Amino acid sequence: MLQRIQTLFLAIVAVGIVGMLTLPIWDKTAIDGTQSVHLTALRLIHEQGTSSFITPVWYIALLGGIVAGVAIFAVSQFKNRLLQSGLCAANSILMTIIMGLLMYFIFGKAKDLFEPNAAGNFGFGFYALVTAMLANVLANRFIRRDEKLVRSQDRMR
């Protein structure tokens, strides 16, 4: 049934991932303004004066697209709660991989390009990913609760 609460949470997962794909994830600007670093789901851009160095990170966007697709597919699997729960678990693993890749690029590569002690700013894309992760956990919880309810009703028959 599409009116269940987990459908709303799975929709939030898909919208959050699309937000991560379209919005900036992290950026940092030097104090003197000569250098800046921007991280999106497709590229890591290091601007230095008039030149810029671009590192492609398209696989983050690819994983994000897979997560959004799995979340939308999981909405349609409301009759098979075990499959729906498994899809949410797979999404949790994929989103953890995305978060690990983002942390690697933020704290492993981008932060040390200039002024390593200066902190960067997380963008709305990062918070959209965190929101999607929380919504996925809640969706999985409500799916399991429904499955438990159905199994208890089967015992009474």
Give a summary of the structure in a few sentences:
This protein has 157 residues and is an alpha+beta fold. The protein is 64% helix and 15% strand.
Folded structure, characterized:
The chain is of the alpha+beta class and 157 residues long. The chain has a single domain, classed as Up-down Bundle (Butyryl-CoA Dehydrogenase, subunit A, domain 3). It has a 5-stranded antiparallel sheet with strand order 4-3-2-1-5. Strand 1 and strand 2 form a beta hairpin. It is elongated, with a radius of gyration of 19 Å. It starts with a helix and ends with a helix.
Specify the helix fraction band: 55-70%
CATH architecture: Up-down Bundle
In terms of quaternary structure, the protein is single chain
Mean pLDDT, as a whole number? 89
How many domains in all?
Answer: 1
What layout of secondary structure does this protein have?
Layout: H1 5-22, E1 26-29, E2 35-39, E3 43-48, E4 51-56, H2 58-76, H3 81-110, E5 121-122, H4 124-156
Antiparallel strand pairs: 1-2, 1-5, 2-3, 3-4
Helix pairs in contact: 1-2, 1-4, 2-3, 3-4
